[in-house]
Write a structure and sequence with these properties.
The complex is a heterodimer. Chain A is an alpha/beta fold. Chain A has two domains: about 170 residues, Rossmann fold (3-Layer(aba) Sandwich), CATH 3.40.50; about 110 residues, Nitrogenase molybdenum iron protein domain (Rossmann fold), CATH 3.40.50.1980. In chain A, helix 2 packs across helix 5 and helix 5 runs antiparallel to helix 6. Chain B contains four helices and 19 strands. In chain B, strands 1-3-4-5-6-7-8-9-10-12-13-14-15-17-18-19 form a 16-stranded antiparallel beta barrel. In chain B, helix 1 packs antiparallel against helix 2. Chain B starts with a helix and ends in a 7-residue tail after the last strand. In chain B, about 30% of the residues are buried. Classes of the chains: A alpha/beta, B alpha+beta. Chains A and B meet through helix 3 and helix 4 of A and helix 2, strand 7, strand 8, strand 9 and strand 10 of B.
């Protein structure tokens, strides 16, 4: 009898393990955040990795297969995944994750976005009407998104609502302790002028008080011409920046050229979890980012 | 805080300096202190400037913040559907007249299969509207405006958003889900024109008025099964004015990833219809109609498709390769009425009416294979090889293959090379050269095209 009960318990627990909420995260940072909050209650699939440009991903069959099984899609929004996610969500045949359902979550709804264009015209490049979507590099945004995500997970999986709340509290406590530490470490970066390869770091720059003096793209998403790079170089001589920032997935060409010509370091930042060997989770992402920035300052 | 640091630095420097103070050392220390002071002053100034700028920005942002009122102001237009327009223009230079184009060995299907007209021409301007109808349905309408005027409804369908168990229904006019290329619109093709197999078997592509049901399996391996029922009013069917299902399709796709750099999709398709009096007209080398007739019977088309994509680390931005191949085979079995009295003056002595009807059975096949290589951001080159096999027409005694180009045996071939440049996701300019032998032996056509494809409006999301 006892043995039977034990077996039953085992079966039930196995069933419970299978019943974990399946989360389809578009980007590594959202996958990591869902994991931090959900713990064992969630099974996270991350659609892209740090070496992919999140804007230029194919609506691959594997993504459709995963979206079909998901109970919750966690996306950035603000137009970042517009080239592939709408097709994946619509063709998944999964009613739970359609836009407007609790199973569809866009992080952009919960943060104050920078660089919201006053005029939307593609003459300005690949502009996002919803503003700059790379807001994960300000850890305070992760707190806001995390809070909303915990509430959403609780909404979808009411039985484990307390666990999500606790998961978020634990994450938030750790994050709130870490933020002042990073800010203190990054104090020497205040006011430091930098050049960015793409407008990927606006939130990081705003958070740490750095100063973006130039972009190596004439327009967002447009590859620089040699003429444009020379122009930036000329400006660099007049108003010198201390380093060039590039995300791990971006082509090193333009920043390497500028680094050579201007004799300033090109700093590769992880941009998201997994972008560098050091950026293993959301905390080491910022540890590594700040460390790399400080190294660039030397 | 900076002041404290300066004081500390000064103290520190003073302490160490006191032990072995030469004049030179003192001067160096002074210089260091001076420099420290300067950098900190600069930093303080920068911080102050930032503070002022932030305050100003905040002040400026304040009146603009109430977003809800802005949304309210959008009012009635806020529900406007996603609108996009695709502009397509070409320049064509062909060694043979596009008006006399025909694929030898195949009974003409009436589709738009000829190469683009010579010199400058406007392609079809595509207007797409799409939006969620409500929480259950989404609607899409796609019109093409012909350069001569006239609007053609390419697609106009609704699809379900909320059916359970991975099921999705589509109804209306839509491009069939068979094969790989069929459901893609010309503006996403990798070449100016459709593969010969699509031209010969579907009149460029299979579209129909009907319903589609698709089911996606809840597995990590992508597995999609689909079926369609349609009126079958277009080739390979024809208008029959009958109740019920006129054309049926079945298709399945599987797909997945291999490592992080490779992804693939493969499929099988089947199309069946029973045309009744499906009419055709054939033309001679001068483009004049020289024969007409009709086919009644069964028509089955089976297909297989494979797509393989490679991108380093799965990031196609700078470099990627796409391999694509499809095979189609059609069997038709029924009766053929053939009348080529039009082709020549009736010989004085014969006096016979050159019209006949008898049994017709034939298996025809075709395939293409292509590779497109993006070697730098925005730059791609591609090669495509097309082949068709007309098969031998198995004719009843009253018909003779020798009399008609469409009934003879022939194996058309075409080789196409293209290079295109896409400065952004929304624009593309393409050069293409093709050598096409579809017209018959010794009738090679050298085709040279320049094309632009530009899209404006909503940012479309494309399928795999």
């Amino acid at each position: 009898m006892k043995r039977l009960l034990a077996l039953l318990c085992l079966l039930v627990s196995a069933g419970a393990a299978q019943a974990a909420v399946k989360v389809f995260a578009t980007l590594p940072e959202w996958g990591a955040l869902a994991q931090e909050i959900g713990g064992d209650q969630v099974k996270v699939y991350t659609a892209t990795h740090a070496l992919q440009d999140p804007h230029r991903v194919d609506a691959k069959p594997s993504l459709l297969a995963q979206a079909r099984q998901a109970q919750l899609v966690v996306a950035t929004g603000a137009g970042l995944e517009v080239g592939w996610l709408p097709v994946v969500v619509r063709d998944s045949g999964n009613a739970a994750i359609q836009v407007g359902q609790p199973g569809y979550f866009e992080a952009a709804a919960y943060v104050q976005r920078l660089e919201v264009p006053a005029a939307v015209d593609r003459i300005h490049g690949d502009v996002h009407p919803g503003g700059n979507p790379h807001f994960q590099l300000d850890p305070r945004n992760l707190l806001k998104v995390g809070e909303a995500l915990a509430a959403r997970l609780a909404d979808i999986d009411r039985a484990n609502a307390a666990a999500y709340a606790a998961g978020y509290q634990a994450f938030a406590a750790k994050m709130r302790a870490a933020i002042p530490r990073w800010e203190k470490m990054a104090a020497p970066l205040r006011g430091v002028p930098v050049i960015v390869q793409h407008k990927s770091f606006s939130y990081l720059i705003a958070w740490l008080g750095m100063k973006e003096v130039a972009t190596l793209e004439p327009k967002p998403g447009v590859e620089p011409t040699s003429g444009y790079l020379s122009e930036v170089l000329a400006r660099q001589r007049a108003q010198p920046a201390r380093m060039i920032l590039r995300a791990a997935y971006q082509n090193e060409g333009p920043s390497a050229w500028m680094a050579r010509e201007a004799k300033i370091p090109a700093v590769v930042l992880p941009f998201t979890v997994g972008g560098t060997p050091g950026a293993k989770d959301l905390f080491s992402l910022f540890d590594d980012t700040v460390a790399r920035l400080l190294k660039g300052l030397e | 805080m900076p002041q404290r640091k300066i004081a500390l630095a000064v103290a520190l420097v003073a302490c160490t300096g006191a032990q072995a103070a030469t004049d030179a050392d003192l001067a160096a220390i002074r210089a260091q202190v001076e420099e420290l002071k300067k950098t900190y002053e600069q930093r303080i100034a920068a911080l102050e400037a930032r503070l002022a700028a932030t305050e100003a920005a905040q002040a400026a942002a304040q009146p603009a913040t109430p977003e809800p009122s802005m949304a309210a102001a959008a009012g009635a237009t806020a529900f406007n559907p996603e609108i996009s327009v695709v502009l397509d223009g070409k320049y064509a230079n062909t060694s043979r007249d596009p008006n006399t184009y025909r694929i030898r060995g195949f009974i003409p299907n009436g589709g738009e299969i000829a190469p683009p007209r010579r010199s400058f021409s406007l392609g079809e301007t595509e207007l797409a509207l799409a939006a969620n109808v409500d929480h259950l349905f989404r609607g899409t309408a796609l019109f093409s405006v012909a350069p001569e005027g006239g609007i053609n409804t390419e697609e106009a369908y609704i699809e379900t958003l909320a059916l359970p168990a991975g099921v999705k229904l589509k109804a209306g006019r839509f491009l069939s889900g068979i094969g790989y290329l069929n459901a893609q619109h010309p503006h996403v093709w990798d070449f100016v024109d459709a593969p010969l197999a699509y031209k010969a078997f579907y009149g460029s592509r299979l579209g129909n008025d009907g319903v589609q049901v698709k089911w996606l399996a809840p597995t990590d391996l992508f597995l999609e099964l689909g079926a369609e029922m349609a009126r079958g009013g277009g080739f390979p069917g024809n208008e029959r004015n009958r109740n019920g299902n006129g054309l049926g399709t079945l298709f399945g796709h599987v797909g997945g990833d291999v490592g992080i750099s490779h992804s693939w999709q493969a499929g099988l398709s089947y199309v069946t219809t029973r045309p009744n009096g499906r009419q055709f007209e054939d033309i001679d080398a001068g483009g004049n109609v020289n024969a007409a007739g009709s086919f009644s019977g069964r028509s089955h088309t089976a297909g297989a498709d494979l797509v393989w994509k490679w991108a380093p680390n799965g990031d196609p931005t700078y470099r990627n390769f796409k391999f694509q191949a499809e095979y189609l085979q059609r069997s038709e079995d029924g009766s053929l009425a053939y009348d080529d009295t039009l082709s020549r003056a009736i010989p004085a002595g014969a006096g016979a009416v050159r019209a006949a009807s008898d049994s017709y059975r034939r298996r025809q096949s075709g395939w293409y294979v292509q590779g497109v290589w993006q070697f730098a951001r925005g730059w791609r080159v591609g090669y495509r090889h097309d082949a068709l096999d007309s098969g031998n027409a198995n004719l009843g005694p009253r018909l003779q293959a020798a009399d008609a180009a469409g009934l003879q045996h022939y194996s058309p071939r075409r080789n196409s090379l293209m290079v295109d440049w896409s400065p952004s996701e929304f624009s593309r300019v393409r050069l293409q050269y093709a050598r096409d032998s579809s017209r018959g032996p010794g009738l090679e056509d050298n085709q040279f095209f320049v094309q632009y494809i530009m899209s404006l409006g909503a940012h479309g999301a494309h399928k795999f």
